[in-house]
Design goal:
Helix 4 crosses helix 5. The protein has eight helices and four strands; from the N terminus they run H-H-H-H-H-E-E-H-H-E-E-H. It folds into three domains: 98 residues, no CATH class; 58 residues, CRO Repressor (2-Layer Sandwich), CATH 3.30.240.20; 25 residues. The protein has a four-stranded antiparallel sheet, with helices on one face. Helices cover 61% and strands 9% of the residues. It is a multi-pass membrane protein. This is YetF C-terminal domain-containing protein. One of its GO terms (cellular component) is plasma membrane. It is found in: Cell membrane.
Amino acid sequence: MWHDLVIVQIPIVEKIVRTIAVYALIVILFRLAGKRGLAGLNTFDMVVVFLLSNVVQNAIIGNDNSLFGGAIGAVTLIAVNSAVTRWLARDPRAARILEGTATTVVRDGKLVPGALRELALRPSELEHAIRMQNGDNVSDVARARLEPDGQLLVTLKAGEQGATRADVEELRQRLESIERLLAQVVADRRPPH
């Protein structure tokens, strides 16, 4: 039993190379698949994620079920992901190549022709994301773009934006001014005693 837990059954370098190769393959596949995440993962995306982890498991571990072998794979995945993340943060060109660029999907209240088809998004997904960001429908949007990480950034038209704290404060001050004027008018209309 202890032998199976701690003795790695394939060379450690092979385990590391397998893990890095599978990581690179998955990154490439997700890059080719396009941007998703607009409203989170849908049912089909979840199925792919669950099955994908099972499909590539043997490619990473090979003929090794040892605890130490699993730890080597886990440490390698975390280290490679950390290195890639740091690299992308420092190198905009690498980020553009590996993650892609933002795609404008709405401009001046109208869908950009072909953008949803290119991104494999349904109009209902886009409308839901717009409602989540305080818009009522596409016509309320000045600009919306899907970022490489799947986030939808929506800029509402000026007339559709919610009130800011400054707007509320200005309104409060105006109401106080009106109240003072009304109090003055009422005081001026009272007959003298």
